[in-house]
Amino acid sequence: MEVLQLIQSNLLTPIILFFLFGIIAARIKSDLKIPEAISEFLPIYLLAAIGLHGGIEMRNAGFENMLIPMLVAIGISLLFTLNHYQILRRLGKFNLFDSYALASTYGAVGAVTFSVGLSFLKNQGVTSEGYLAAILAVLEPISFIMAIFLTNMAVAKQIRAKKQSFTNDDVSDIEIGIQETKTKLSQVLHESITGKAIVILLGCIVIGYIIGEEGFSSIKIVFDEMFTGAIVIFMIEMGIIAGQRLGDLKKVGAFLIAFAIIMPTFNGIIGVLVATTMGLSLGGAVLFGLLLASASFIAAPAILRHAIPEAKPSLYITSALGITFPYNIIILLPIMFIVSSIAHDVEGSIDLFNYITWN
Amino acid sequence: MEVLQLIQSNLLTPIILFFLFGIIAARIKSDLKIPEAISEFLPIYLLAAIGLHGGIEMRNAGFENMLIPMLVAIGISLLFTLNHYQILRRLGKFNLFDSYALASTYGAVGAVTFSVGLSFLKNQGVTSEGYLAAILAVLEPISFIMAIFLTNMAVAKQIRAKKQSFTNDDVSDIEIGIQETKTKLSQVLHESITGKAIVILLGCIVIGYIIGEEGFSSIKIVFDEMFTGAIVIFMIEMGIIAGQRLGDLKKVGAFLIAFAIIMPTFNGIIGVLVATTMGLSLGGAVLFGLLLASASFIAAPAILRHAIPEAKPSLYITSALGITFPYNIIILLPIMFIVSSIAHDVEGSIDLFNYITWN
Amino acid sequence: MEVLQLIQSNLLTPIILFFLFGIIAARIKSDLKIPEAISEFLPIYLLAAIGLHGGIEMRNAGFENMLIPMLVAIGISLLFTLNHYQILRRLGKFNLFDSYALASTYGAVGAVTFSVGLSFLKNQGVTSEGYLAAILAVLEPISFIMAIFLTNMAVAKQIRAKKQSFTNDDVSDIEIGIQETKTKLSQVLHESITGKAIVILLGCIVIGYIIGEEGFSSIKIVFDEMFTGAIVIFMIEMGIIAGQRLGDLKKVGAFLIAFAIIMPTFNGIIGVLVATTMGLSLGGAVLFGLLLASASFIAAPAILRHAIPEAKPSLYITSALGITFPYNIIILLPIMFIVSSIAHDVEGSIDLFNYITWN
Amino acid sequence: MKLYKVKLLTVTCEILAQKNIIQILKKHNITGYTTYEVEGNGARGLRGQGFKNEKNVKVEVIMREDKLSDIVEEISRTMFANFALVLYVNDISVVRTEKF
Amino acid sequence: MKLYKVKLLTVTCEILAQKNIIQILKKHNITGYTTYEVEGNGARGLRGQGFKNEKNVKVEVIMREDKLSDIVEEISRTMFANFALVLYVNDISVVRTEKF
Amino acid sequence: MKLYKVKLLTVTCEILAQKNIIQILKKHNITGYTTYEVEGNGARGLRGQGFKNEKNVKVEVIMREDKLSDIVEEISRTMFANFALVLYVNDISVVRTEKF
Ligand SMILES: Nc1ncnc2c1ncn2[C@@H]1O[C@H](COP(=O)(O)O)[C@@H](O)[C@H]1O
Ligand SMILES: Nc1ncnc2c1ncn2[C@@H]1O[C@H](COP(=O)(O)O)[C@@H](O)[C@H]1O
Ligand SMILES: Nc1ncnc2c1ncn2[C@@H]1O[C@H](COP(=O)(O)O)[C@@H](O)[C@H]1O
Ligand code: NA
Ligand code: NA
Ligand code: NA
């Protein structure tokens, strides 16, 4: 199937249609809204389902092969975060705070995006490695911690520089600054790791691993069969919020809009290729790419607002939810699927150059 | 099956029993309550399910035949609204505002009633035309717009009359009045059309039409199989609210109580017969009649409170929810089903007069 | 299967694992939380499902045999409440108010515990008598009413004693005290009986009885198939709340901790044996025992806070939810299952003494 | 617009004490009040996590000065000992004194 | 810390009247306000059970004294007759008067 | 009933700033406060749609006058620049001053 065709058929799945519907509802200023309690519950539910599914898969297939992909994911994630920072600070001329906040928003991962990816693969009849849920959990805090560490280092350096130019005898303020940085970092570390997303995800991976297919059977209807229906409801709300944010796009500016499309494409395709090289399956490579392509729009604000309060949330939320998320699930996901198909075909039969013409 | 028998068997279905249970819970002053977030979410869910179902049906069966029933429904709806007004104002001696508010409440449609109707037909093993969901969506705002238009015209006229008796040179106030009317009307129009009920209903009809049976399969468990279970839960809350309102019946008065039973019966049976004449199926005619018989108790207050603030909500909510809704789903629905059966039999085999005796 | 083995396999079921997960989430101070509307709705849903199930069973199996078990349950429940009071007041040295409050908390029943018991039996492939749901409903208020009656009597007596030592001519205050007691009692009686738990439970038993298997089929997916999935979600929240309370264990003290484990064990095993004697099935006897073993932690505070405001809720909530509930569902439930198996074996084949060695 | 001085009594207490407060108000012939659920911290610890019954509620009552003292006295006497509860009084101005 | 005297206007009304209040505020060039849903009892009976639209809302507006009178007058004139509504004014102190 | 004059500090701010406010209170040895979620509009635009984290919260603290100034100063200094936040002070009367 060709890219455009796949994009088109993806566009016509319930998940994407409900998302677009939500955007339209927001644009025409409808009062439609999923009640807060429901839209707060749905991500918990989705993460629980992802975790259980991952845990059960890991029990079935083992997780010996998990270590290398996880370490590679962490490494790439950190590299990408640094790369984002350089691009945003130097090319984009964003200030220190916004640059680090945006860099880590795009270095982090989006659990909702991952859910949509899982559903997409299910729809294509393709499976994936269960341990990717574990990688999702581990990647969550990584880029935040790095960005916060670097921001605080940079701020401390600035303070130090300023101090030295004024007086030379009084360094206690700098020490206080560094001390504060440490406190902040340990707080953020704690907040990240005990954040509900990671806790429910890791917890359910462990539970899924313990109970296996058999124990799962009694709750399968809720945590498996209703999965897509639940995403679809959540997508209405995501569409509404994204739609409300579209008005802020002018605040975001052309540079960041371009960044929010090009960067995920680059990160995602690298991800697919690296994953393929490490031996992940066709579907697994797509999800691995999606992890790297995705930006965080639920966890990010909660962490960054405390850690880098100087950064403008309107920038990082709007670009992650208003641009990157729709782009990722509508366009990039099919693209990565084709790339992964080609890459896996290559490995199997060195058919790369003939693929596009003949298939 | 005879009317009484059908009413009785309808009375013993979960939907009706849970509704009655809710009423009892309210009457004995129990603190039972469905949490607000759930009872706000359920109508959205029900409308989404109705819309998807309608859209899928329309894709399967086409919607060429939709136009005439829709135009007829709109026409009848407007006629009925005017008729209600005359009855309420002349016979019922209600003031201008209450008359128009009540007239449009009964001219409008009730989405919850429609859900119950769909479930009733499912229970009887009878299908209906998918495009009725579209008619539901279109009828929603029609009678409100008309009632508001007429109310404002009437008020403007009154103001004009008053002015002319005092001074003759100053008509600017009247112009302001008319201007205000226009503003109000365009506001109400916007509010109606972007109101969550219509938006979710129309949106889901379109989505259902696009995805069809096949695309629906992944969300079928949530939006089809759980439908009756969800209604049942919503019926508890509807029963509770209706039960709380029963105490207000004395405020409503004997005339309005009679109106709230006789009018829907008249409207509904006309609706069934007209629909049969237009060639709708047995089930379709029942739903068409139900649309005309139903009164709005969720959308109405939201619109009327702004548009005709002088009207007393205790009148129109209490009569629509406390009397007409229970009457419609418990008694009128089976009656209309019998009427539709007879009418369809007639068409097939001219058996009308023998039907009641022999069947 | 041996006790330890059964406890272990019970420990690894989703229900228990999610509960433990909730405890851990609370202990590491995660911000994970099931939104309030959901965790308020779930007990209503669970009770509705229990009621419907019970009602349908009663229609199938009749309820002629219900009377004696119900009367026996009431009698034992009252006896146990008095017994708890004596132990708490004399051995535990708690004050009058705390003693009565705790006595009735443990004399009352826990609907959540009962849900878990039903799921446990389902998992073991064992059925139970449907009328146990009715006994659950009736037991709810019994011990509260008794405890409140006794507390108020005791307080009135104290007041009288005090008065008589001061003046001899003025007894009006005592009469006021007794009058107040009566008012309080009738209030509590009304509150208990119209409390949402009992209302939904009894209502759904009646509805289940009326609709039977056939009428149930359209809502079976929601009220039967999703049951365990829903419990599992509720267990997260129960675990979180229990986990938050673990810090209060020192306030509870060693005596009450011991009481919260020994008392249910004693009550539960008595319950199993009595039920077996009355001819209940293996599963029915387990549930009967569980009713007597369970303590109330949702209904209790709502009633006791009004009826005995002097009693400390931190005592009765913490011990019932933080100690007894986990103990009951993790350890006592399997123990009672073994006891019931032995007892039922005995009846069949007098195999008691050989059972433990050979099986 | 002429404004008239009245009092605003605010009671923050555990949700299960709301009924008692409203009974006291009724006893003093006051039927107008506004309530909403809140969370809080105080001498009896953090309130608002866990069961809904363990949250707090605020009850706000606009009233004329003459009733204030008795009501405050009765709430203090009957409820301070057993319930998590804080109350305070505010001077406010309203348009329609006859409503209160 | 220097504090400046301003006014706090609080309007408690039925939820469907919130739009009207905010329109009046906008007309007087006030765009800052805080709102939250509440329940209540008053001349028009218990509000807060039943449909969400039958709850109340509180609208709180910090403003300078000069605008207060006109706004109170307009709300009184256009809304007292048809809506369940109570309003009151409070004297408060703020740090940044330029915000209001 | 004797009433004593104290202060009521009200902070309306974005939900994610609540932690900071409570930390500041703790630093000044204040552990009693009441909080609730609200929506609002102001210089930083409409707040309350969208994600829960984008709502506001009100933090209300009854305290004696002597602590007020320092706390207001610290909140102003550390938070006005980066957070959507409004604060105001009210004169109120309470029964039990020893609680605050
Ligand atoms: N200083 C205070 N300022 C504002 N609210 C308070 C204060 N102290 C207590 N509260 C509220 O009153 C409730 C009961 O207080 P307490 O009885 O001290 O636990 C708390 O949960 C808070 O909601
Ligand atoms: N005396 C009062 N104190 C506080 N709030 C009140 C009072 N009277 C009315 N209210 C509030 O204002 C709303 C409308 O009042 P009413 O128009 O009198 O029904 C009520 O539902 C309450 O929320
Ligand atoms: N004039 C005002 N009156 C009442 N609340 C306000 C006012 N201005 C701002 N607020 C509240 O304070 C929040 C933050 O304000 P701002 O920083 O101006 O965006 C708003 O979202 C409102 O909830
Ligand atoms: Na990423
Ligand atoms: Na109608
Ligand atoms: Na018990």
UniProtKB/TrEMBL annotation, chains A, B, C:
- N-terminal signal peptide: none
Annotated TM spans: 6-26, 38-56, 68-88, 100-121, 133-155, 193-211, 226-243, 255-276, 282-304, 316-343
One Pfam annotation reads: Sbt_1
| Keyword tags | Membrane, Transmembrane, Transmembrane helix
Q: Which domain of life is it from?
A: Archaea
UniProt KW Transmembrane keyword: yes
User: What protein is this chain from?
Assistant: Sodium-dependent bicarbonate transport family permease
UniProtKB/TrEMBL annotation, chains D, E, F:
Q: Which Gene3D superfamilies match?
A: 3.30.70.120
List, in alphabetical order, the GO biological process terms annotated in this UniProt record: regulation of nitrogen utilization
What GO MF terms are annotated?
enzyme regulator activity
Per the record, a Pfam family? P-II
Q: Which InterPro entries match?
A: N-reg_PII, N-reg_PII-like_a/b, N-reg_PII/ATP_PRibTrfase_C
Its name, as the record gives it, is Uncharacterized protein
Which organism's genome codes for this protein? Marine Group I thaumarchaeote
